[in-house]
Amino acid sequence: TRRQKTIKSTFFSRCEKFKEHDCQKLWDLFEKAHVNKDPCNVPVEAYDPLIAAAPFIPDCKKMMFWSGTKDVVHDLTAKRKDCYFTLEDTLLGSILDGLMWCGKNGKDDTFTTGCPGWSDCENNPVRSFWKCASAAYADAACGDVTAMLSGSTTTPFDPESIFASIEVTRLKAPRVSSLNVVMVLQMNAKSDCTNASLKNLQNQLDPNITYSCKDVAEHRVEQCGSQPQIMCGSCW
Ligand code: NFD
């Protein structure tokens, strides 16, 4: 069908921007995870073979996590690949970012409409994929890692988020030495580094990982992207 061609061609064109990967093999593994299944019954493990076939080889020292700050983070990382790297800069993360898909019982296709939304059922293909990919991404982290959280909510460290429920608990010392939270403050911010939810973050974090938090105005994050002469360590 026309629909299927759209996600398939997006998948291949994004995949082919990365060198040395067998995009057909990745597409087949991608489809195998959800095709011909109830779209509310695709467990996280269904995407294990896909993730295993596309190993994460990020520069583990530059790893950036985010929650509630998608646009700010990606505006920055698009311009400062010398400093930071996100899941969406990995092969699978960049292929599937922003896409929606599912299979259906008794059908051999991947669909992009009529699929369950993020919160309609827990085990939907999109949510299961991101959980699976986030776990593998966090497992690969090393050194000093950064997390950009949003000061625009009352709970910047939201227990329901993937950052809180999957990524933080997978960061392990001594491989990871520090977690540096950047609280992105827009005008009329609702919370900052003193927010109570950040106590939960510290409690969940491996005690041998050094925690820090810094309140940073959004325009300062944007400045770091627009002025490449700023050294990575001086962005905020
Ligand atoms: P988030 P997070 N309804 O900003 N990651 O901590 C709908 F429709 O809350 C990357 O959960 O941060 N969509 C991606 C939702 C996705 C809803 C997930 C909702 N109620 C996780 N809640 C990605 N690239 O798409 C969440 N979403 C979707 C990894 C929505 O697309 C990254 O490594 C939203 O933009 C990052 O460190 C996205 O999930 C961390 O987990 C993120 O929700 C961010 O997950």
Considering the chains and any ligands shown, give keywords for the structure:
236 residues; 9 helices; 13% strand; 4-stranded parallel β-sheet; 4 strands; binds Nicotinamide 2-fluoro-adenine dinucleotide; alpha/beta
Written account of the structure:
With 236 residues, the chain is of the alpha/beta class. 38% of the residues lie in helices and 13% in strands. The protein has nine helices and four strands. It has helices at residues 2-16, 23-34, 48-53, 70-79, 91-96, 125-139, 162-170, 197-204, 218-226, and strands spanning 64-67, 143-150, 176-185, 210-217. A four-stranded parallel beta sheet has the order 1-2-3-4. The model has no long low-confidence stretch (mean pLDDT 95). It binds Nicotinamide 2-fluoro-adenine dinucleotide. Nicotinamide 2-fluoro-adenine dinucleotide binds at residues 65-68, 70, 87-88, 97, 117-119, 130, 134, 137, 161-163, 167.
Summarize it.
The chain has 236 residues and is α/β, with parallel strands linked by helices.
Number of H/I helices: 9
Q: Gap between N and C termini, in Å?
A: 49 Å
Sequence of secondary-structure elements? HHHEHHHEHEHEH
Structural class: alpha/beta
How many beta strands in the DSSP annotation? 4
**Cα shape:** globular
Q: What is the rounded Rg?
A: 18 Å
Percent of residues in β-strands: 5-15%
Q: Helicity level, as a percent range?
A: 25-40%
Write the layout of secondary structure elements.
Blueprint: H1 2-16, H2 23-34, H3 48-53, E1 64-67, H4 70-79, H5 91-96, H6 125-139, E2 143-150, H7 162-170, E3 176-185, H8 197-204, E4 210-217, H9 218-226
Parallel strand pairs: 1-2, 2-3, 3-4
Helix pairs in contact: 4-9, 6-7
The structure holds Nicotinamide 2-fluoro-adenine dinucleotide.
